[in-house]
Amino acid sequence: MGFLAWILFGLIAGVIAKMIMPGKDPGGLIITILLGVAGAFVGGWIGSFVGLGTMGDFSFGSFVTAIVGALVLLFGYRMIKK
């Protein structure tokens, strides 16, 4: 269940990251959402090391790490594609 939870977190995190960091993305909405899923996994993995949530639960800390991970990947993607 943890894997599916992080995919759902990632979808939501990708949309929220897009709202927080508006602008034209080189890949459009689908790429942004996929970056959100990847960012959720990265953020959740890092967050589990620092105690902000685990990969298998729905908590506020897990949600924040998913959004932060999505923002970081979205920012990095924009910098690479410029």
TrEMBL record:
Entry keyword annotation includes Glycoprotein: no
Lineage top rank: taxon: Bacteria
Location (main, coarse) = membrane
Its cellular-component GO annotations read: plasma membrane
**Membrane topology value:** Multi-pass membrane protein
Question: From which residue to which does any coiled coil extend?
Answer: none
Key word Lipid biosynthesis present: no
Query: Where in or outside the cell?
Result: Cell membrane
Query: Which keywords does UniProt give here?
Result: Cell membrane, Membrane, Transmembrane, Transmembrane helix
Membrane spanning stretches: 27-46, 58-80
Record-linked PANTHER family: UPF0410 PROTEIN YMGE
Query: What family does the database annotate?
Result: Belongs to the UPF0410 family.
Q: What is this protein called?
A: GlsB/YeaQ/YmgE family stress response membrane protein
| Organism of origin | Vreelandella venusta
State the taxonomy lineage. Answer: Bacteria, Pseudomonadati, Pseudomonadota, Gammaproteobacteria, Oceanospirillales
